[in-house]
From TrEMBL:
One Pfam assignment: Ytp1
Transmembrane segments: 20-41, 65-88, 95-112, 132-151, 172-192, 204-225, 298-315, 327-347, 363-381, 396-421
Start-end of Basic and acidic residues biased regions: 444-453
DUF2427 domain location: 51-150
Ranges where the Protein YTP1-like C-terminal domain occurs: 178-421
Xref: InterPro entries: DUF2427 (IPR018825), YTP1_C (IPR018827)
Chain intervals for the UniProt region annotation (Disordered): 432-498
Top-level taxon of the source organism: Eukaryota
UniProt biased composition (Acidic residues): 455-471
Protein name: Integral membrane protein
Keyword terms of this UniProt record: Membrane, Transmembrane, Transmembrane helix
Signal peptide annotation: none
């Protein structure tokens, strides 16, 4: 359905009115995507060589599938997330980059279906989710083309903001969905996480991803979100504690099948849930000072500390597994300890290093990086992975160093994406020395900054309607609103564009 928008559907007549040269690349991508539709609906799986009770055959992964893996990691892991940031800042490179990424993703798609070598059962989770991602991608492109058409009159005036919202939400979900699909790809390729292993896989991948997600959120807050956080009128520990309490509640009731015997690690998991909500409630309480103003506290850091200790104390069968769990435990305990040091002794309970939220202390990156490392360490420590490493000739130290490398790469990539965002969203702030936090409205520097902004970053023609301007000014709140919440300046809010 979405594809018809680009071809003969309701958009056909406006298409004739718009500049074809400008759209040709996106249209071609949409048509290409349509051509891949039959493929997305599945291919014949040859399962003849898969032994009974297994989900993969013994053959090695063939070159076609290896290329699929690298091509998709490049498209979904690097290009789409970068494109997403360019979309958020309304860069004129958004559309070309996403068109390129879509074309590469389609190539990767074909390769995923055309591979020989190792065989996989047709019901594998990566293949199933692959179809969903395909439709999300095609839908996203279709919505993107609609936005690019700039249909703003009549009914489109009402539809457009909705479409933009959906495109925005789906676009921001893309990196998360891609992450999941990459993990599914890894376990499918190796035939992992079947039967009894499923529960353990879920625990390790969900919790590991959660550590990384927390690390990414803390990076965002540190680099571009300090003022946003301050505007909420709450301390960071309030939010952390609420999440901890809620998560604890869920775990209290889900980690043990009530009414049955207490088996294996049920006790540990359930009591962990209990301590989380107990601590979380205390954390919420401590996040306000006597006068009601936001106050920092040690509780989320402490919860992470004891979680690291408890998780690493799980009995392990294999030597290598014990070692990886131990290092994981040190990392997570390190997150907790360094976070408490950061809050209490580096920041001295202040929300950030500088009043205007623009600075950070080198120590503040320590807990964040350790979160990334803990995430990778935990995700890489399931029984099956441990057995694989043990049989590979690699030792625990080498394996752990590889996991650290992955953590550094993702840490770097997140910083790079935030940099791209920051350069545009806070361009003025970065470009000029400011008095009282920002230049007076209408001064030369501000005018220059805005012109530079428009020239360098904006997608031409994107900023034509009122919602666009509203949206842009809201997005730029960081830039303008922080010091002047009491008297927002309409001249600034309108961005001075006509
Ligand atoms: C290839 C076809 C695509 C086209 C033609 C396209 C076009 C556009 C346009 C015109 C906008 C500006 C909308 C506005 O605010 O008026 C936009 C924003 C955006 N796009 Fe795309 N896009 C495409 C693909 C993608 C993909 C694949 C992603 C996901 C990774 C994505 C993520 C975003 C995001 C996050 C925004 C910002 C939305 C917001 O500010 O809330 N786009 N896109
Ligand atoms: C987010 C990026 C990715 C997407 C969208 C994607 C999508 C797909 C699709 C649609 C298929 C065909 C499934 C079918 O047979 O119906 C496939 C096959 C496959 N992919 Fe991926 N893939 C991605 C990344 C990866 C990664 C990172 C790996 C491995 C580390 C991987 C491993 C595999 C394997 C083993 C198959 C063969 C499964 C089969 O024949 O059923 N993929 N992929």
């Amino acid at each position: 359905m979405a594809l018809r928008l680009a071809g003969r559907g309701p958009v056909a007549s406006p298409l004739r009115r718009i500049d074809f040269g400008q759209l040709s690349a996106t249209t071609v991508t949409a048509i290409l995507a349509a051509a891949f539709l039959p493929m997305a609906l599945g291919h014949e799986h040859d399962e003849g060589n898969i032994p009974d009770g297994e989900t993969v055959s013994a053959e090695p992964i063939d070159t076609t599938l290896w290329i699929h893996i690298f091509v998709q990691m490049f498209a979904f892991g690097i290009l789409f997330p970068l494109g997403m940031v360019l979309g958020i800042i309304k860069s004129r490179w958004h559309v070309p980059l996403q068109v390129l990424a879509t074309a590469i993703a389609l190539l990767g798609y074909a390769l995923g279906h055309l591979h020989g070598g190792r065989q996989f059962v047709s019901s594998n989770v990566h293949a199933k989710f692959g179809t969903i991602i395909f439709f999300l991608m095609v839908g996203q492109v279709a919505l993107g083309i609609y936005l690019k058409l700039h249909l703003e009159k009549g009914i489109n005036g009402r539809i457009r903001p909705i479409i933009r919202r959906i495109h925005g939400i789906n676009g921001k979900a893309f990196p998360v969905v891609s992450w999941v699909q990459m993990l599914f790809g890894g376990i499918t390729a190796l035939g992992f996480c079947q039967g009894d292993h499923l529960g353990q896989c879920l625990a390790h991948f969900i919790m590991g991803s959660a550590f990384i997600a927390y690390g990414i959120l803390l990076t965002l807050l540190l680099l571009v979100g300090q003022l946003w956080l301050r505007r909420t009128g709450r301390s960071q520990e309030f939010f952390d504690s609420v999440v901890i309490a809620a998560w604890g509640c869920v775990n209290t009731f889900t980690e043990h099948r009530w009414g049955t015997a207490w088996v294996r690690n049920d006790w540990q998991h359930t009591t962990m849930g209990i301590v989380w909500w107990c601590a979380g409630l205390a954390g919420v309480w401590l996040s306000r000072d006597r006068d009601g103003s936001p106050k920092r506290n040690f509780i989320p850091g402490f919860v992470i500390l004891i979680t690291g200790w408890a998780m690493s104390a799980h009995p392990q069968d294999m030597m290598i597994s014990a070692m990886v769990h131990k290092v994981f435990g040190y990392n997570l305990m390190g997150v907790g300890i360094t976070r408490i040091i950061e809050i209490s002794f580096v920041l001295h309970d202040k929300p950030g290093m500088a009043e205007d939220g623009s600075q950070s202390h080198s120590f503040q990156y320590v807990p964040i990086f350790l979160l990334f490392a803990s995430g990778f360490m935990f995700m890489g420590a399931t029984e099956e992975q441990m057995a694989l490493v043990k049989n590979s000739g690699m030792d625990a130290v080498a394996y752990i160093l590889i996991l650290y490398s992955l953590a550094f790469l993702l840490f770097l990539f997140v910083h790079m994406l935030i940099y791209v965002y920051d350069r545009s969203a806070n361009a003025q702030k970065l470009a000029q020395p400011v008095a009282n936090g920002r230049a007076a409205p209408g001064t030369r520097t501000e005018e220059d900054g805005r012109l530079g902004d428009a020239g360098e970053f904006e997608l031409e023609g994107l900023m034509t309607d009122d919602e666009d301007e509203d949206d842009a000014s809201r997005r730029n709140l960081l830039k303008h609103g922080e010091d002047d919440l009491a008297s927002p300046n309409p001249a600034l809010r309108n961005g001075g564009r006509s």
